[in-house]
Amino acid sequence: MQTPSRPATIPAALTLAFASMLALPDLGCGPTDTGDLAGDYPGTQEAGPGGDDETDWPTSSGGSADDSDAGADGVDSGAGGTAATGADAGASVGGKSNTGGASAGGTGGAPPKPPMDCSGIAKTAGFELCGSGPDYCDGVFTNGAGCVAFCAAAGLKCASRYGGSESCGGPELNNPLDCAANTGNMSDWCHCQGAASGGTGGTGGTAGAGGTGGGTLQCPTQAGNPPVQKELDKDDAVYTQRYNWVVTCSPHAYTGQSAEHQTCDSSFKPDGTRKGKATFTFTGVPAGAYDVLIESKHSANRNKAGALFYVNGHAAKINQVGSSAYIWDLHGRYCLSGTVTVVLDSTVNTGSDAVSRVRLKPAS
């Protein structure tokens, strides 16, 4: 019978060393704020209306499904949008993450960039700030000053200029202008990015000449006419290349190319490109700051490049690829008033894009 061995005796020197380690002072190395990995697409996500009974359409040999919706309804953790070239998808306060930025319980990643400090523009007479994001300020001058002076008020340079009217009506995309041109126009739309030549970072290192920081978008409002929530659905939209849109088969409209969809939408006669536009036009919008939310049916067969939406000319791509569910995605936060146009532009590639509702929600 083997006798169990006794535990080895810990040398006294080692015991003292261990005790000394326990007595080390606190060096401030507490838990690290892990931030929020919301994916590469800024945007909020909320579960939308109930299930979708839409048929899972088969695909022909060599083809791809337009709108396969297999799977239970839920919230897709990968929703959101990436900024289109030269524009912003993160105009919302909180930037590149779900609303609120780096949320508690996140799983890592750097904190989101705050919106650009555009206060120099907002406080200058004759300048109207219409939108902002982590790397840009947008707006219009109404005094003939030009976009170079407009952007310099925030310590930025003019990246692009378009014809535009006062009251943040949006850029005239079919009327691009040279940033430094002396057009004689009293009002144009200015898109500002980067630091202007010779510009300073402002007091305390914040962007803009003498800027004071902060992340709240300051928008003009009208006394007695506060911002109100407005919403349009897919039946309110105007479609170009309607023959490429499946509109009457489900609560959402989407671009498709499979002839099977003709059984529930007689106007669907696809040319194979899945190209077209859906335009939502809001009128009588009281002036103020709004979060623009897009609801769509996410599915595994959506456009891998992202659905490109414009809000009064502000471009952002929304990732609609994911498990089958209706999702609300945040496009951005903007100063809006009067007529507001939201466009789903599906002419840029051949992916399947979708939209069911568009909501203008007063920013809180």
CATH classification class of the largest domain: Mainly Beta
CATH topology of the largest domain: Jelly Rolls
Radius of gyration: 26 Å
Distance N to C terminus: 78 Å
List the helices and strands and how they pair.
Layout: H1 12-22, H2 119-122, E1 127-133, E2 136-141, H3 147-152, E3 156-164, E4 171-177, E5 188-195, E6 230-233, E7 238-240, E8 245-246, E9 253-255, E10 277-298, E11 307-311, E12 314-318, E13 325-345, E14 354-355, E15 357-362
Antiparallel strand pairs: 1-2, 2-5, 3-4, 3-5, 6-15, 7-10, 8-9, 9-14, 10-13, 10-15, 11-12, 11-13
Report on the structure:
The protein folds into 2 domains: about 35-60 and about 65-95 and about 220-364, Galactose-binding domain-like (Jelly Rolls, Sandwich), CATH 2.60.120; about 120-195, no CATH class. It has 3 helices and 15 strands. The protein has helices at about 10-20, 120, 145-150, and strands at about 125-135, 135-140, 155-165, 170-175, 190-195, 230-235, 240, 245, 255, 275-300, 305-310, 315-320, 325-345, 355, 355-360. Strands 6, 7, 10, 11, 12, 13 and 15 form a 7-stranded antiparallel sheet that branches. A 5-stranded antiparallel sheet has the order 1-2-5-3-4. It has a 3-stranded antiparallel sheet with strand order 8-9-14, with no helix packed on it. Strand 1 (about 125-135) and strand 2 (about 135-140) form a beta hairpin. Mean pLDDT is about 70; it is low at about 1-10, about 15-110 and about 195-215.
